[in-house]
Q: What sequence folds into this?
């Protein structure tokens, strides 16, 4: 008579090791999830994330769309921030430059960085930035005003995309948030002083 093979019981040490490895793997994935999500959005345009290119478009399309510009500032950042023009009409493949103007309304230097997206979401895969102030932290001195360019084009491939057929207007939206100033390094005299007791 045939007897089924008996399973050997797993040792508690092997189970504990597997749980530790699994937990460390999940912890690693949780730290990697934000950069991986950003990379995915940048590569696919998911969530209205514009694409980035190093050169102007070499291809011209035939369709024109309206591009609207939106500007927002966090309450913690004392800036006035607005586009040079609220809206333009743009043919696919045509590279254009639009300026945004920012003014520091405070009496001290402030710093900010812009977050950005495009709506409707499916347009993100076809909205291509060549240059943008949003890639770097921006600083404004007390009462200072600056104009910053954004250079972009609409990829002519959008003309073949079914989800873009009924889209007539795209909105590029920026939101500025404050960034912290780097800590001021101590002078050698201050660094050598003993704390007062």
A:
């Amino acid at each position: 008579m045939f007897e089924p093979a008996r399973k050997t019981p797993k040792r508690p040490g092997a189970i504990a090791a597997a749980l530790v490895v699994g937990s460390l793997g999940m912890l690693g994935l949780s730290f990697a999830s934000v950069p991986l999500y950003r990379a995915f959005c940048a590569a696919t345009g998911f969530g209205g994330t514009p694409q980035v290119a190093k050169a102007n478009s070499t291809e011209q399309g035939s369709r024109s769309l309206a591009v609207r510009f939106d500007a927002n500032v966090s309450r913690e950042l004392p800036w006035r921030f607005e586009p040079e023009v609220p809206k333009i009409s743009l043919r696919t493949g045509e590279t254009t430059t639009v300026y945004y103007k920012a003014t520091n309304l405070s009496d001290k230097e402030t710093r900010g960085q812009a977050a950005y997206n495009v709506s409707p979401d499916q347009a993100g895969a076809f909205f291509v930035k060549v240059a943008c102030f949003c890639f770097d932290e921006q600083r404004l001195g007390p009462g200072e005003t600056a104009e910053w360019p954004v250079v972009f084009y609409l990829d002519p491939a959008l003309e073949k995309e079914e989800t873009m057929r009924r889209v007539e207007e795209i909105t590029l939206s920026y939101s500025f948030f404050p960034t912290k100033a780097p800590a001021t390094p101590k002078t050698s005299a201050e660094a050598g002083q003993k704390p007062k007791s």
